[in-house]
Every structure is written in structure tokens, then in C-alpha cells.
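Morning - adenosine-5'-diphosphate inputs below, output right after.
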Amino acid sequence: MNQQPLLSAVNLHKTYRRSAEKVQVLRGLDLEVHEGEFLSVIGSSGSGKSTMLHLMCTLDKPDDGAIYLEGRRIDNLPAAERDQLRNRTFGFIFQFYHLLPELNALENVLMPQMIMHSAWSWWKAKGKLRKEAAQLLERVGLGHRLKHRPKELSGGEMQRAAIARALVNRPRVLLADEPTGNLDSQTGKQIVEILRDLNRREGLTIVMVTHNLEISHATDRVVKLVEGRVEAAVSDPFADNSQAVIRAASVA
Ligand code: ADP
Ligand code: MG
């Protein structure tokens, strides 16, 4: 497949320094994400999965290497442009949801819209935006909990609200950092089914980090991080040979 990737990471290096201690996390990581695919990234704890996601959405900068969105370099853009990318182009969901506790589900979903609008344009568009946010919550199965605050919701319900919030500005790419890591296996499966469905029906491109191999099997392609790089794909239909490459990699 020689179509230009939607998002690509090229030769990423990242080292964290804390006083005299150096932690070399990424050591020449390359990854291409194609439009419309649902990709999962596995790897042991501390292997750099979260670091990689943060670099890909410009939340943090690589020491070396670059990130491209449709061929345009984005990691070195000015802060205001990177802020805008994170608000509009990327959606992010986290293991611990990161909902604002004092806001209800609907208000949490509206938050990225409030940030994007001026006070006046927010006031004018409020009714329409609230309706769209409620529709998104319905889309993820939380239409009956619009007015509940996070502490009145279960883990699975909080993650549904967080997914709706990540989608409210219609991102091109959804990045999910262990979205099922804090959920029981049945609830985790339901969350992945929502993502699978968003990908199939709406063509949403998704990169999901997980260390649950069973969860990763629901996705189109699985890559593994080992020693700061992407190891040969565990399953990769985008590989040069036309057949899906399924390597009997030992997956921890
Ligand atoms: P993963 O998500 O695969 O568990 P991370 O990307 O969170 O791994 O972290 C990779 C390594 O980098 C870990 O050893 C972690 O302790 C270290 N690390 C992550 N963030 C920082 C930071 N801000 N400062 C120092 N070390 C960090
Ligand atoms: Mg992590």
C-alpha cells in the first residue's frame, strides 16, 4: 500500500532526565498510521507507549525525529498551532477518563467546544451544540445519564462520556491510552466495541494503546514496542506482501 499515511512518526527519540538519571525511552521509533485504520500498540509497562502517543499528538516534543500529519511536519509548529491541532485534529482518551468532577456528563462533553468558541459565538451556538453533545452521548450509549456527574457514573459510563468528549470536535485521529485498563473485562470489551463501531461506520482513525492482547485482537493491526522501537508487526495487513503478515511473535 503506497498511499500517504495520515499520521507518521519518523525516527523518534526521547530521553527523560531526572537529576543525574537518564531514561532513554524511545530509540528510533517509526510508525505509520493510515486513514481509516484501527491500530493497537502493545508493549510492557514502561516501554514508552504513552510517551509515543503524547509525541504523536504534539503534547510533548521528541528530542530527535519528526511527526507528520498528511505529510506536513507538526512536531515543531508554534505552541498556538499545536494547541489547535490537539483541540481539533486529535481526540484523546485516557485510562482514568480525566473528566472534570464538578461538571455533568453533558457539560464535560461540551468543554472542548467551549474552549474553541469565543463567548459570543458560544452563546449563539449553545442550543445546537448542546443538542449535538447529547446526540454523541446517545451514540456511545450514555443518553440516559446526561446530567450525572462523574462520581455518579460507573467506570464504563465515565469512559463512554470521555469518548463522546474526545469526538465532539470531530477529530481526524482518536488516540486512546489504555482505555480499558481500569475496567473489568466485560466492560472493557463494550468500550472497544464502541471504538470498533466508530471506526467501521464513521471511518474514524484510531490508535489504541493496550497491554491486553485479547483487546488488541479486535483491531485491524497490532504493533509492539520493544526497546524504544516498533518491533516487527504482530499483525500487519499494510505490509508490502499482500497477505496479512501474522508473525508468531511472543507477545507479553
Ligand atoms: P508506558 O506507557 O509504555 O507504560 P511511558 O511512556 O509512560 O510507558 O514511560 C516510559 C518510561 O519513561 C518509564 O520508565 C517512565 O517511568 C519514564 N517516564 C515517563 N514520563 C516521564 C517523565 N515525565 N519524567 C521522567 N521519566 C518519565
Ligand atoms: Mg502508559
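Note: Helices lie at 49-56, 79-88, 105-116, 119-139, 155-167, 185-202, 213-216.

O.
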